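Shape is hard to put into words, and the shape of a protein is harder than most. The fold becomes a row of whole numbers, each drawn from a learned catalogue of backbone shapes. The outcome of that step, for a single protein, is printed below.
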Amino acid sequence: MADNTKTAKMWQEAAAETKECLPLEVLERMMENPSTDAKAAMHLAGCAHCQTELTMLKSFEQSTPSASEGAAVAWIAAQLERQQNAPVAQQKIARVPFWRTMFRVPYLAGAAALVAVLILGVSLYNRDSDGPGKLNSGIGSGQFRSGAIHLVSPVSDMPQVPTEFRWDAVPGASSYSVEIKDVAGVTLASAKSSQNVLPVTPEMKANMISGKPLKWKVTALDAAGKEIANSSLEQFKVK
């Protein structure tokens, strides 16, 4: 039993492929004309692996396919030839005009949001951002405008307690209401004037402490006492 195992192992080692074994194309040439390569013929004479490979190659080349195998081979060959001769189909990418993509749902949603933001921004600008000293055309026609009254004095840091509050006149205004507030927005004192100037009242003066920041605001009223315009809050401080 041990001798049989040793013999089988020796046969496997003899038939195993080595790095000197001949490649398939050399074996094909040897099968057609053994005398073309003397070195290959010498290796083949002593190599069991190459001899086995050559025998299998000859068997494959000389075998005759059955009817079913022949039909399958013919079909495969026809398919390969058809694919090789057929022109490469060029995929045509449909180009959609830019204006049409704008009407797709994602684009419409983005465009609608952008338009909404623009409309909101314009409305806020027209309502609150007329800027100091720029009276809106709606004043005097019954339309209330915020931030339309330009405050002249006091502003910023004052070297001493101011004696009056002064602002630009508003067309159509019969009277004005003046308020002073602390930085938290709490009203500390208020008074009214029929002109675009108001002398500082004792109550107002009592709140003008050195180093204390204050804010003031003017509201314009028509003959019926209806508010038609106001100013933004202006901050000042007595040094």
The chain has a mean pLDDT of 77. The helical segments are 2-15, 24-32, 38-46, 48-62, 67-85, 98-101, 105-128, 202-206. DSSP finds eight helices and ten strands in the chain. The radius of gyration is 52 Å.
